[in-house]
Amino acid sequence: MSFQITDEAIDPVARKAELDHDSAGACATFEGWVRDHNEGETVSALEYEAHAAIASAEGDRIIREALDRFDVLKASGVHRVGYLEIGDCAVWVGVSAAHRGAAFDACRYIIDELKQRVPIWKKEHYQDGPSGWINAVTGKETPASDVDS
Amino acid sequence: MNITAQYFAVFREQAGRGTEELTTSATTAGELFSEVSSRHGFADSLERCKVAINDELASWATPLNDGDVVLFFPPVAGG
Question: What is the model's pTM?
Answer without folding.
Answer: 0.92
